[in-house]
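Table S2 (text version). Query chain:
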Amino acid sequence: MKKLLISLPLTILLLCLFITGAHALTMDYIGGLDTSGQGYSIWWYTGLQPRIGGTADVGATVDVAVGDQSGLVPTDADGGWWWDPPTAFSAGDYATTITDGTDTISFTLTLGSSVPGATQAATGSGVPATGTWVPTVVLGLIAVGIMAMGAWRMVFILSRS
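Corresponding C-alpha cell output:
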C-alpha cells in the first residue's frame, strides 16, 4: 500500500509535466531565411515562392495564409511543419497568418525585395515570443502540493484504521 501511495503521486506529477510541457507554434524559416522563431511584424524575402516552416504540437494541423494563397498542413512525427505556395507570388507585401488553432503568428511578408538599408530589428513589437517554462513549473508545484496533501491525508486515514 505504501508503494501505491508513493508511486501514484509521482505518476500524476510526471503526467502533468508532460502534458503542460508541449511546445507552442513557431515559424523557423521563410525559404532560406532562418527566422529562429523570432516575432517581427514584417519579414523580407528576395524570392517569390518561399517554403515557410516551423514547429507545432505533434498531431496538430497548421493553417498558413499568405495573401490569397493558403493551405492546411499536418505536423510530422517531431512536430515539424512546412508549407509550399502552389504558385509564385508577385513582388510586394502580403498579410501572413499562421495558426494551429491555439497560437497565431501574424506578420507582413515582403517578397521580391531585400531588407531596406536603414531598417533595424524591432523592439517591443511584433508577435510576442510563445512558449515558456514558467507555467509548467507552477502547475507542477501545485500538483506536488495537492498530491502531498492527499498522501498525508491517506496516511492519516490508514493509520487510524
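Notes on Table S2: The first strand starts at residue 26 and ends at 30. Residues 24-130 form a domain with the Immunoglobulin-like fold (CATH 2.60.40.10).
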